[in-house]
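Why does residue order matter? Because the sequence determines the fold. Keep that principle in mind as you read this record.
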Amino acid sequence: MNCQKLTKKYTHYMETQTTETELENTSQKNSFKTRILNAMHSKYGIVILSFIAFIESAFFPIPPDFFIVPMVAARPHTWKRIALWTSVFSVLGAFLGYYIGYALFESVGQVIVEKYDLVDEMAKIGQTYNDHAFWSLLTAAFTPLPYKLFTIAAGVFKVALLPFTLAAIIGRTARYILVPYLSALGGRTMAGNKYLKRMTRYMWIALLVAVVGYIIYKFI
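Structure:
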């Protein structure tokens, strides 16, 4: 499966959702986003973030990363707490995605897959699960790939729960420790572009490690 192609297709879907009708409601949407961000900084912020992490692993299009960065940058000392709650609920949400694929695909899962225009990719993922289920799930759990597609597909193709669970715990925990940690560094240093470059560099290094691990597992 071409991970880069899948990522680009999902990203393209996210970028092309703004239609002419939606443009008319831009101010209303901006107001909604402002309310969400304000809520994230309230005492209920961690609850909202946990809920987003939960549903994102199963069907929600927006990753919790977009909320983690401003939350932690504003209060760097909270990064460990945010990392813990996001990781836990993201893993729990993966099981919801698995259940949707396993028991509710015709009524719910298929609608989600078609909504993101990823029907063809579902079949390709099924092929990779035959030989490399763990590494495919681990890569999706850590990288910007649409993780919800992989969790739903895992249920559809009845991937064993042990590799599914291990991949979810390792991949999601690694991702949601890294993102808050780097956000905390940015909040402490207020380094602006320097911080963004550093964060991007660390993310690429982590991605490279995951890819190398997959290649070693598959070919060596």
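The chain has one domain: 3-11+28-219.
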